[in-house]
Amino acid sequence: MVSADLARFIVGVIGNVISFGLFLSPLPTFYQIIKKKSVEEFKPDPYIATVLNCMFWVFYGMPFVHPDSMLVITINSVGLVLEMIYLTIFFIFADYRGRTKVCISILIELIFVSIVIHITTLALHGTKNRSLLVGIVCDIFNVLMYVSPLTIMKKVIQTRSVKYMPFTLSLANFFNGCIWTSYALIKFDIYILICNSIGVVSGLLQLFIYAYYSMTGSKEEEIIEKEPTKEPTKEPTKLQLSVVEGPCKV
Length: 250
Known about the structure:
Elements: H1 4-24, H2 27-36, H3 45-60, H4 70-93, H5 96-123, H6 127-145, H7 149-159, H8 167-186, H9 190-216, H10 218-226, H11 238-241
Helix pairs in contact: 1-4, 1-8, 2-4, 3-4, 3-5, 3-6, 6-9, 7-9, 8-9
């Protein structure tokens, strides 16, 4: 019979693999940025937010904050490195305003994280109290990251077209949430459970919307395509929207 620790480790490794794939999902976007040597209308906001999220989860996984969380540290450390690479690419090809935004945002995040670290290590004693503070902070920012897909879902409902919602990314986010929810339940971790159970609901809702409008929205799209040509309004591309929701990081 498989022990709980071994089962948790196996599930955590699977979660690392899926999360790693999600962290790599923006690669096509940044390939286009490098190829065009311009960020065009691309915004760094999701990656700035993900950097902060990863930093807090790495800190959460530290032995003096929440013991036995090495797999939380590994995936979020990798994610932090990848997000910084993405922001570096953005910085290189952005204009002065875009570069300033990245620098100021990262500076503010570093100051904020430093404050939380100092409060946690100096004012709080014991892993229970430290896990409480850092876990709540992690969950707050993780939940805020789930707000971004709402804009995509709204676009799908308005246009009755799923071309703005990449199916594979929505499916991967759903499975990622399921895996990390299971991880949190095997050895109960309320903070990992909260954010990832919300991720499951968010992913499931996206898949439901995708299934519904992929079946009912095709005729609407055909009608729109046959309408007399009008001045096209600039819509965000699937490539841009595919990076709005960061992976469900633990």
